[in-house]
Amino acid sequence: MDQTDQTTHFGFRDVPLGEKQTLVNDVFHSVASRYDLMNDLMSGGLHRVWKDIMINTLNPPKGDAPFALLDVAGGTGDISFRAARKAGAGFHATVCDINGDMLEVGRQRALKQYLDDKVSFVEGNAEKLAFPDRSFDAYTIAFGIRNVPQIELALAEAYRVLKHGGRFLCLEFSTVEVPGLDKIYDLFSFNVIPQLGRAVTGDAESYRYLVESIRQFPRPNAFAEMISAAGFSRVSWQTLSGGIVALHSGWRL
């Protein structure tokens, strides 16, 4: 069965599998210049805490030994910049994103932060990475995997490009697990976030999609099973902020 015969979800809509990537690209072309500002507004700054937890979990080495990070769907560079500031002289990050507008924002930020020697930017597809087998020490993806049309392919590629002993870390929105908070979260998500998007970026529909896509993403245990099925060992996860996000970990052993 080819992609024209298969469907997937784009938010709450069913769309042909082959069309989802173009629709997702349009979302991020639209919001790229204000993406980081919107993250602050939508999360009340909490996304910075979640990303710091991810980097502390990664714990990149502080010495001179080479350490190569692949940061997928990391267009504006947030994760890679955090890792670069924490790591030693041997560290280098490659940001891989399918969206050129997001990558250009990241490149400009790298220059302003004097991190352009530590962080490179490459346009590419998470489902078919243009990197050799076993070429990275770690793979990170933050708030990006739910936008991948075929998540299983992205996980298989993550496993392929990691070295033996390499670590996979995925930070993604999850399922709120605190009674009462779930209703507040839904109210904020569906009513406030699209209006913030309209006010800040002139685009409410892209943020309505992003909110809907969170609800379509697998629950933490189901996603952990997908990571294990891709070949990863010692798969685990932790939920943060009452389940608003989850951080998944796996190792190529």
Q: What does this 3D model show about the protein?
A:
- This protein is α/β, with parallel strands linked by helices and 253 residues long.
- It has helices spanning 17-31, 35-43, 46-58, 78-86, 100-112, 151-161, 181-201, 204-216, 220-229; strands at 7-10, 13-16, 67-72, 91-97, 119-123, 136-142, 162-173, 233-240, 245-251.
- α7 runs antiparallel to α8.
Strand content bin: 15-25%
Low-confidence stretches: none
**Radius of gyration, Cα only, in angstroms?**
17 Å
Number of helices: 9
Q: Write the element-wise H/E pattern from the N-terminal end onward.
A: EEHHHEHEHEEHEHHHEE
| SSE-based structural type | alpha/beta
Main sheet properties: 7 strands, mixed
Mean pLDDT: 84
End-to-end Cα distance, whole Å, is: 33 Å
Helix content: 40-55%
Q: How would you describe the shape?
A: globular
In what order do the strands lie side by side in the largest sheet? 5-4-3-6-7-9-8
- How many strands in all? 9
What are the defining features of this structure?
two-stranded antiparallel ribbon; 253 residues; 45% helix; 7-stranded mixed β-sheet; globular; alpha/beta
Topology record:
Blueprint: E1 7-10, E2 13-16, H1 17-31, H2 35-43, H3 46-58, E3 67-72, H4 78-86, E4 91-97, H5 100-112, E5 119-123, E6 136-142, H6 151-161, E7 162-173, H7 181-201, H8 204-216, H9 220-229, E8 233-240, E9 245-251
Parallel strand pairs: 3-4, 3-6, 4-5, 6-7
Antiparallel strand pairs: 1-2, 7-9, 8-9
Helix pairs in contact: 1-8, 2-7, 3-4, 7-8
